[in-house]
Amino acid sequence: MTSLNVNNQPVAYQIDPQTPLLWALRDASNLTGTKYGCGTGHCGACTVDVDGRAVRSCRMTIAQAEGTFVTTIEGLSADRAHPLQLAFLAGNVVQCGFCVPGIVMAAAALIRRNPDPDEDAIRAAITNICRCGIYPRLTDAIRRAAAAMRGEEVIPAGARPGIEPADAARVVPALSPR
């Protein structure tokens, strides 16, 4: 049994200790915000926070994560109100959205280490790949979120995107055949 803390909850995985953290999070914990992209650690879609560091979860086994504190996009903010999430929405950063959870988690780790990152620091820390090319807006959103976290700016919440998380997994009755 492999024990770690996921989104501030103790978890004991009863699966092979060599299972990548990505699959433990997605399949065993049903935390599907962490995405599978390349499986080699290059794209960053699977980035999570492990003890304050941005980690590519496809390249870390749960045995390697034993005893750590892991935060996924779901654990960043229960109500989607983290300054990074608000800045991404306010700046219209998101296009397809597939890479965004990993980028947000990498940015959160960066801002924790460096509360006032300049463009060079952001480019060095955010090595995630985005096929949509959100990079110009991304830098601005990260700087804006950092300013909000320092108390220098307020990012309005605006309308909440998408559906409520509780509704995302509800069972929909089957349609009767005609």
From TrEMBL:
Which keywords are on file for this protein?
Answer: 2Fe-2S, Iron, Iron-sulfur, Metal-binding, Oxidoreductase
InterPro entries, alphabetically?
2Fe-2S-bd, 2Fe-2S-bd_dom_sf, 2Fe-2S_ferredoxin-like_sf, 2Fe-2S_ferredoxin-type, 2Fe2S_fd_BS, Beta-grasp_dom_sf, Diverse_Oxidoreductases
- The yes or no answer to whether the keyword Iron-sulfur is present is yes
Q: Which organism encodes this protein?
A: Sphingomonas mollis
Tree of life domain: Bacteria
- Note the CDD domains from the entry: fer2 (cd00207)
Query: Gene3D superfamilies, per this entry?
Result: 3.10.20.30, [2Fe-2S]-binding domain
What's the protein name?
A: (2Fe-2S)-binding protein
